[in-house]
From TrEMBL:
<feature type="domain" description="TonB-dependent receptor plug">
    <location>
        <begin position="2"/>
        <end position="118"/>
    </location>
</feature>
<dbReference type="InterPro" id="IPR023997">
    <property type="entry name" value="TonB-dep_OMP_SusC/RagA_CS"/>
</dbReference>
<keyword id="KW-0812">Transmembrane</keyword>
<comment type="similarity">
    <text>Belongs to the TonB-dependent receptor family.</text>
</comment>
<dbReference type="InterPro" id="IPR039426">
    <property type="entry name" value="TonB-dep_rcpt-like"/>
</dbReference>
<dbReference type="InterPro" id="IPR012910">
    <property type="entry name" value="Plug_dom"/>
</dbReference>
<dbReference type="Pfam" id="PF07715">
    <property type="entry name" value="Plug"/>
</dbReference>
<keyword id="KW-0813">Transport</keyword>
<keyword id="KW-0675">Receptor</keyword>
<protein>
    <submittedName>
        <fullName>TonB-dependent receptor plug domain-containing protein</fullName>
    </submittedName>
</protein>
<keyword id="KW-0998">Cell outer membrane</keyword>
<dbReference type="InterPro" id="IPR037066">
    <property type="entry name" value="Plug_dom_sf"/>
</dbReference>
<keyword id="KW-0472">Membrane</keyword>
<keyword id="KW-1134">Transmembrane beta strand</keyword>
Length: 511
């Protein structure tokens, strides 16, 4: 398949270009975030629990995954999937052809890993002739989601339901204040308490005062899609040069991608460079060199790995996915107070505002990828060709999860204690699962292990990859109807991954 036939403008990741283009190949996008690996299956799955992803081969060299992402991680939105796409650093304009393999020949060439299929990519080479300069620019816009696409209550009808629940005794202020999460009724229940600073009650506990307080929330009708999403613009620019003589041909390219991010907290930048030179001194000998470089800088909302609950289900604590939040949060909840400050609800026993959270809880992803490759072909006989391929690749990635002191997670680890921003509360402390219980002392008050500061979780992966392959190919035709093909090769491959992980507790970002 020629790349120009299946190219999809606006799709930055090469792996997503295969979607709906090739018979027997299914591509399931588990995340719209740049760099996240899609779930690709070539002619179905081969294993229930094992790996099912295909092998990527670029210019004859296996492109190793920097991070090995399991089937479960692909399906659950694990943060490691943001580094899971092996081909995120390839400029689509540099691709000449695609080829999908899944047969015995593929397994003999690439080993057992080829049983899930092989996607072979051949990149462009220089062509003899005058210098050709090519520029490609893609501009893609994504509009904000709209509530018209979803069946979600507006704030007035939501407050009617809350009011009915209160009238029937299903919603009581004492009960609400003891929950790990609450919205506007919880904030009102909190305001009903005596305020020592003013010497009065913020909200008087009578029907008229409470109705007046709640009236604002019934009319506010917050548009969470408007607050958490952008009418984003993604721009891609690619420039290439191709030309040369009959004996020397060169292809060079550079590209830049800038994605402002559809959801707030998302942003990505990618730079690629490619240089390929081919030498053909005579009819028997040809050789060439290829160099690729790729730099990526990306931000995304902070997320933790999924965990299994005691009931056997799954849970992702402190999830701040903007789309999930917009779908599942009541429109009666405001973003700001009337004075312009953030309006806080409670989440995980601690104050929470989604915009403040996106500012203080985020992932910083950086990746650098460099590959140098050499190839040589020599015709020993007209029917016998010797080939040599050698490549070196170095990749350095880092994923920094910044959880600053003002985000919800550190506050949850202090909720109910003397370090709580709302003051000490023994009732909350007794039920807060993020506090430390003193062993063999049931009467002791739970304590916080995080008096000050936040968290910082940093992981890095460095990969060195060497490939060296010799091969002989014999191709002879007998008459008009018979041909003999023999192929033998020897390959040496070396892969070393160095993983480092750092988990900082009490990390103080302002010092």
């Amino acid at each position: 398949m020629k790349a120009e036939d299946i190219r999809r403008d606006g799709v930055a990741d090469v792996s997503r270009m295969l979607e709906g283009q090739v018979a027997g190949v299914t591509v399931q996008n588990v995340s719209g975030t740049f760099g996240a690996a899609p779930k690709i299956r070539v002619r179905g799955a081969t294993s229930i629990t094992g790996e099912n992803k295909p092998l990527w081969v670029v210019d004859g060299i296996v492109l190793e995954d920097v991070v090995n992402v399991s089937n479960e991680q692909l399906s659950t939105g694990d943060p490691s999937t943001l580094l899971g796409s092996a081909v995120a650093g390839i400029n689509p304009d540099d691709i000449e052809t695609f080829e999908i393999l899944k047969d015995a020949a593929a397994t003999s060439l690439y080993g057992a890993r080829a049983m899930n299929g092989v996607v072979v990519i051949t990149t462009k080479k220089g062509k003899a002739g005058k210098l050709i300069t090519s520029y490609t620019g893609n501009f893609t816009t994504s509009l904000k989601p709209s509530y018209s696409s979803f069946d979600i209550l507006d704030s007035y009808n939501q407050m009617k339901i809350f009011n009915e629940m209160e009238m029937k005794g299903w919603l009581t202020y004492t009960n609400v204040l003891q929950q790990s999460r609450y919205g506007v009724y919880g904030t009102m229940a909190k305001e009903l308490g005596y305020n020592p600073a003013t010497g009065d009650f913020n909200v008087v506990n009578d029907p008229e005062a409470k109705a007046q307080y709640l009236d604002r929330f019934a009319r506010i009708n917050t548009n969470w899609f408007d607050a958490l999403f952008n009418n984003s613009l993604r721009q891609e620019h690619a420039l290439s040069l191709s030309g040369g003589s009959e004996k020397i041909q060169t292809y060079a390219s550079a590209s830049m991608l800038q994605d402002q991010g559809w959801a707030k907290g998302n942003e990505a930048r990618r730079l690629t460079a490619n240089l390929r030179t081919t030498f053909t001194p005579n009819d028997k000998l040809s050789y060439g060199f290829l160099a690729n470089a790729y730099i990526r800088d990306q931000n995304a909302p902070g997320t933790l790995q999924r965990s299994t609950s005691n009931q056997g289900g799954f849970n992702r604590e402190f999830d701040i996915n903007p789309f999930n939040y917009a779908l599942n949060t009541s429109r009666s909840t405001p973003i700001y107070n009337e004075d312009g400050s953030y309006f806080y609800v409670r989440n995980n026993f601690a104050p929470f505002n989604i915009l403040e959270e996106l500012e203080n809880n985020y992932l910083d992803i950086k990746s650098t990828d460099f590959k140098l490759q050499g190839e040589l072909k020599y015709k020993i006989l007209p029917e016998l060709t010797y080939s040599l391929d050698a490549a070196y690749r170095y990749v350095k990635t880092s994923q920094d999860h910044m959880i600053q002191e003002n985000s919800n997670m550190p506050k949850a680890f202090r909720a109910g204690t003397i370090y709580d921003v709302d003051g000490e509360n023994s009732t909350i402390a007794a039920i807060n699962p993020y506090l430390l219980r003193i062993y063999n002392n049931a009467e002791a008050q739970p304590v916080s292990v995080l008096s000050y500061g936040g968290f910082r979780n940093r992981g890095t992966v460095d990969m060195d990859n060497y490939t060296f392959r010799n091969s002989l190919n014999y191709n002879k035709k007998f008459g008009e109807d018979h041909r003999l093909d023999l192929f033998t090769f020897q390959e040496l491959r070396y892969i070393e991954r160095n993983n480092t992980e750092y988990k900082g507790v009490g990390y103080q970002y302002d010092r």
